[in-house]
Task: inverse folding
């Protein structure tokens, strides 16, 4: 897919944008999740809580964990929207869903970030 | 009358599979569709410009092309609605082979239509009378909602999954299959579900909704495809599809 | 060398006639090699697809085939060939069931689930079967789907240019085609051929048919020496959109229902005028309204663009927008506000009742050549009932398909094509490339105006003579006009040139036949002969091309083989259709 | 997508939906309430319900993500059906294994 392809005018509508964000967030999750698991496992296996806490206090861990949670929220909301369309036949309410997605996702992201630091 | 003539800058993609844009200048008119612009160019500026149209009122679905990046029917697209800064960019529909200039080969589109079992198969009802079906019947309404497709190929061109997956049947074919499945007179409705679950069938769709967004006659293939996804899954679970 | 293909059955055109013929031929014998050659794409070209109103068929209790027949004869002003009209009304019953139960058309229903049949002008019973106001799409899409599935060969964007006779004169041998996509010629030999190119009065300034229709079929028929009949009978629809001569949408139809439901026609000064012409006002029949509109414009009382306004707003814009959703949207797409404002309209040429003379089994005087649909003449006489057009093409298309298969079963075989005809016809089509490029636009515009002004809704001897002289002149201009020889692949301008050649020839047939009929009847109105002649001595016009290329007109008495003027097949029944023309209005 | 992978992907999505809500709620609550990691872990350690909860979550996400990535590879890269499927299935195994280990660490270790 070329860059000019990305900007194809025919994609400039909420449905495609939502699907695209959904895919990117899904991809991000799929890439982050193994690291998250790995890190969790490693840190805890080392056996010491102190080590683990030290580890979670590292800024890069905080940032990436925040991103992970944000991506999860975004993807989750987008996924719900999609499931509604596919399984409940909710077509008219697309616009509403998209705004809910964004509101929810940013809400969670901001909340998390506010408290994390 | 005396107002100076306004000129449209029209870039048209010329040639076959490979090609380049060529600029034309067309006088703007009050009542002018994109098809009229193309006709003007063929009649007055370049006699060899190739394009396709037939009915000129939005029923045959022959005149679709890419207008400023979006697939559209052109006989019913008023220039004023799409022109940007006095410019129009025209190209053939995406996702179909190009024959020449603005004309595409719709053969693959109709092959997919057939592959999706987009046609009626008679049931064993009596041939000499009309099946009694109430207009308020749920399936009848679903069939009616999906049936007025003019097979213009606009949705097919708008769908990214069609360009990503060669074997994807695409929104128009699947939309037709959904109308067929909702036809209670049909003699092989499971056959439709079988057709739309093999290869690049309905589950290949990612609910991008570009099809519904662009369909000139406001059909909603996304909705139809979602219906197929559900019904075929149900039929599989019930063991009706082998 | 010319590429030659062979097929058992060759069908020209993919309207209701062509598609039904293909399906019927395949059904009669699945082993037959059936090929459809069409100027556009299968299922996406022609006028059957544009049918809005619907399909006439006598199905309900209280209606009858006889009643449908009488409506057709009376509507046609006693000019139809009665055995053809009979075949139409009978065949319609079978055809509508096939469309519904075998092809999969899903026509509209009444609340109780039974088939809905609506009223259509000029009929004594509500018998028009429909699918919303897009009946044609339903019919053609369903037919095309069946055709795609049946191993029927398709030569799409192949334009037929000549019917090629056998060398020994025993019948038709082949059809010469241009593959429009690459611009080459292709000769297709067939045992039987169906001509279903759909006529279409596209030589008038304002016209409704699809862009691929240029009277090619009738022109090929004339050149092949066939007889045509009723060519003066061109039906006009009163409300075609007027959006300027540079627009393709000009001439396309605004639905009749607009007038029926109370729309006003207003002249340039904003006054209603229909009551000056007829006590029914805007609700008078198509021909009366069309004539009144033309006279109003000719008297200088038209709109600035030379049309008439149709206005619906007094009925309440919201109500109009709801009741005529499709029409309002179509107008809006083109920049007009039908629900709340005025839209400029003028009558528009819609349908040719005339065409190639044929028998009830669709055979013609050329052995092996069959004809069906709007290319054929004689079914509708002086006027076609709304809803009888698509019935006509589908009924006779099916009949032809069966008859063609039957002819092959009885031994029809390939004939040796007359090479000199092929050579001559190829030469005719290539001629313009050898000439200096000319301006086809001027020729087209002149033709459109000439036919509109002089052979249109109101005709007289002087106008028609001028028309014929003008056509001679145009014919010469056309023959001189060359084309830049850039590419022949998908060269629409070349096809415009070929279209004009067909249109000029068939225009001449129309004008000559109109000159020959010295009376007013149905769609044909002569201001110098405003009365309708005696019904009992009704004659139909004939026209054919003689060896020297000139068209020769004649006339023959109509044989009242089933019912005579003054009689009815349904006497005594309440609501029997009127038998005189006044009452039919 | 085959109907099976479609069903699995949408099914795991539906399954994960409530799990995610709980998981996010827990995290937010924890962070908001200023719970330390220690405190969190002290609650999950040895808890069978949490074990089942995260075990399911990990399995579902592994299947879900594996199928998702397979589709993306199929559509956005020149890899064919087989290669995409292999990578996707591989991802399922890897994710599941890593996830299981993490769950083990959180609940039992
Ligand atoms: C806008 C409109 C509305 C109408 N509404 C109604 C209605 O409500 N009810 C009704 O009964 N009738 C209606 N009619 C009339 C009806 O559509 C026609 O009478 C009928 O459908 C003609 O069918 P056909 O098969 O003869 O031709 P068509 O359907 O016109 O098909 C002709 C075919 O021949 C092809 N062709 C033409 N020239 C060539 C060539 N040289 N070589 C190869 N192929 C060629 C064309 O591409 C096309 O495929 C309407 C017509 C129009 C234009
Ligand atoms: C652990 C978390 C998750 C991961 C790693 C993940 C990953 C992915 C990936 C990679 C895709 C493919 C995207 C595509 O095909 O365009 C995807 C698709 C999808 N995800 Fe998730 N996802 C997760 C959680 C969820 C949740 C909780 C839901 C639902 C609430 C969900 C719903 C969906 C849906 C419906 C799709 C299909 C989208 C499509 O076909 O385009 N996912 N997911
Ligand atoms: S669904 Fe709509 S966009 Fe797609 S082919 Fe049919 S009419 Fe055209
Ligand atoms: S745009 Fe394509 S992805 Fe599905 S919803 Fe429409 S077919
Ligand atoms: S020309 Fe028929 S839809 Fe545009």
Result:
């Amino acid at each position: 897919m070329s860059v000019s392809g990305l900007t194809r005018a025919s994609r400039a509508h909420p449905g495609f944008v939502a699907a695209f964000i959904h895919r990117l967030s899904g991809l991000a999750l799929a890439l982050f999740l193994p690291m998250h698991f790995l890190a969790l496992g490693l840190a805890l296996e080392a056996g010491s809580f102190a080590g683990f806490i030290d580890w979670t206090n590292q800024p890069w861990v905080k940032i990436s964990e925040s991103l992970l949670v944000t991506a999860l929220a975004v993807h989750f909301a987008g996924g719900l929207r999609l499931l509604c369309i596919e399984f409940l036949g909710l077509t008219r309410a697309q616009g509403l869903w998209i705004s809910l997605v964004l509101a929810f996702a940013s809400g969670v992201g901001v909340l998390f970030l506010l408290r994390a630091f | 009358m005396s107002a100076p003539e306004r000129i449209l800058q029209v870039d048209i993609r010329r040639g076959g599979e490979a090609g380049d844009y060529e600029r034309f200048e067309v006088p703007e008119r009050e009542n002018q569709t994109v098809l009229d612009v193309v006709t003007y160019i063929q009649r007055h500026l370049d006699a060899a410009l190739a394009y396709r149209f037939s009915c000129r009122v939005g029923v045959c679905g022959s005149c679709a092309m890419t207008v400023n990046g979006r697939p559209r029917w052109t006989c019913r697209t008023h220039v004023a609605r799409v022109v940007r800064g006095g410019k129009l960019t025209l190209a053939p529909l995406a996702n179909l082979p190009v024959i020449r200039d603005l004309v595409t080969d719709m053969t693959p589109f109709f092959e997919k239509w057939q592959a999706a079992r987009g046609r009626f198969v008679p049931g064993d009802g009596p041939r000499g009378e009309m099946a009694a079906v109430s207009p308020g019947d749920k399936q009848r309404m679903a069939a009616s909602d999906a049936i007025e497709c003019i097979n213009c190929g606009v949705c097919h061109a708008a769908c990214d999954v069609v360009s990503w997956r060669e074997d994807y049947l695409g929104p128009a074919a699947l939309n037709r299959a959904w109308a067929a499945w909702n036809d209670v007179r049909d003699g092989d409705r499971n056959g439709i579900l079988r057709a739309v679950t093999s290869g690049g069938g309905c589950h290949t769709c990612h609910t991008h909704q570009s099809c519904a967004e662009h369909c000139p006659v406001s059909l909603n293939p996304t909705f139809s495809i979602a219906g197929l996804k559900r019904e075929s899954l149900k039929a599989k679970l019930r063991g009706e599809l082998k | 060398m010319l590429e030659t293909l062979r097929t058992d059955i060759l069908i020209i055109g993919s309207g209701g006639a062509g598609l039904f013929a293909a399906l019927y031929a395949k059904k009669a014998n699945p082993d037959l090699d059936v090929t459809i050659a069409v100027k556009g794409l299968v299922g996406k070209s022609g006028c059957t697809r544009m049918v809005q109103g619907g399909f006439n068929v006598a199905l309900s209790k209280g209606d009858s085939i006889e009643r449908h027949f009488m409506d057709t004869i009376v509507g046609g002003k006693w000019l139809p060939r009665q055995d053809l009209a009979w075949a139409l009304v009978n065949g319609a019953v079978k055809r509508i069931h096939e469309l519904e139960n075998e092809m999969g058309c899903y026509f509209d229903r009444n609340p109780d689930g039974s088939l809905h049949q609506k009223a259509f002008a000029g009929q004594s019973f509500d018998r028009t079967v429909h699918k919303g106001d897009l009946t044609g799409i339903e019919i053609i899409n369903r037919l095309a789907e069946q055709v795609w599935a049946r191993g029927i060969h398709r030569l799409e964007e192949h334009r037929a240019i000549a019917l090629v006779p056998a060398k020994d004169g025993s019948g038709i041998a082949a059809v010469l085609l241009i593959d429009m996509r690459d611009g080459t010629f292709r000769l297709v030999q067939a045992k039987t051929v169906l001509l279903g190119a759909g006529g279409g009065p596209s030589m008038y300034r304002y016209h409704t048919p699809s862009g691929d229709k240029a009277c090619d079929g009738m022109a090929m028929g004339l050149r092949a020496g066939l007889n045509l009949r009723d060519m003066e009978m061109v039906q006009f629809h009163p409300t075609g959109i007027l959006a300027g001569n540079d627009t393709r949408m000009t001439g396309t139809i605004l639905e009749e229902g607009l007038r029926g439901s109370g729309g006003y026609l207003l002249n340039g000064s904003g006054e209603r005028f229909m009551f000056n012409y007829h006590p029914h006002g805007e609700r008078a029949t198509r021909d009366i309204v069309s004539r009144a509109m033309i006279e109003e414009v000719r008297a200088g009382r038209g709109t600035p663009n030379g049309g008439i306004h149709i206005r619906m707003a007094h009925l309440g814009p919201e109500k109009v927008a709801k009741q005529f959703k499709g029409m309002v949207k179509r107008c809006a797409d083109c920049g007009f506000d039908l629900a709340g404002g005025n839209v400029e309209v003028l009558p528009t040429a819609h349908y040719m009742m005339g065409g190639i003379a044929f028998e009830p089994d669709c055979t013609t005087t050329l052995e092996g050549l069959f004809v069906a649909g709007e290319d054929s003449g004689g079914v509708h006489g002086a006027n076609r009932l709304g809803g009888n057009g698509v019935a006509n093409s589908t009924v006779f298309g099916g009949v032809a398909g069966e008859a063609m298969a039957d002819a092959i079963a009885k031994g029809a075989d390939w004939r040796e094509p007359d090479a000199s005809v092929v050579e001559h016809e190829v030469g005719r089509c290539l001629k313009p490339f050898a000439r200096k490029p000319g301006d086809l636009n001027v020729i087209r515009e002149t033709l459109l105006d000439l036919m509109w002004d002089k052979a249109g809704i109101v005709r007289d001897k002087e106008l028609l003579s001028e028309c014929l002289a003008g056509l001679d002149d145009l014919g010469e201009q056309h023959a001189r006009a060359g084309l830049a020889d850039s590419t022949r692949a998908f060269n629409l301008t070349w096809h415009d040139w070929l279209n004009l050649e067909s249109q000029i020839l068939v225009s001449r047939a129309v004008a000559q036949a109109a000159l020959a009929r010295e009376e007013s009847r149905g769609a044909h109105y002569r201001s110098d002969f405003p009365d309708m002649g005696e019904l009992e001595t009704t004659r139909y016009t004939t026209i054919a091309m003689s060896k020297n290329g000139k068209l020769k007109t004649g006339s023959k008495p109509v044989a009242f083989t089933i019912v005579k003027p003054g009689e009815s097949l349904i006497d005594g029944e309440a609501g029997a259709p009127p038998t005189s023309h006044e009452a039919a209005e | 997508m085959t109907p099976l992978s479609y069903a699995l992907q949408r099914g795991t999505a539906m399954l994960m939906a409530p799990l995610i809500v709980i998981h996010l709620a827990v995290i937010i609550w924890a962070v908001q309430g200023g719970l330390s990691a220690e405190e969190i872990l002290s609650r999950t350690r040895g808890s069978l319900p949490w074990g089942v909860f995260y075990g399911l979550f990990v399995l579902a996400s592994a299947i879900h993500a594996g199928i998702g990535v397979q589709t993306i590879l199929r559509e956005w890269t020149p890899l064919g059906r087989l290669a995409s499927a292999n990578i996707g299935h591989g991802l399922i195994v890897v994710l599941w294994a890593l996830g299981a280990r993490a769950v083990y660490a959180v609940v039992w270790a």
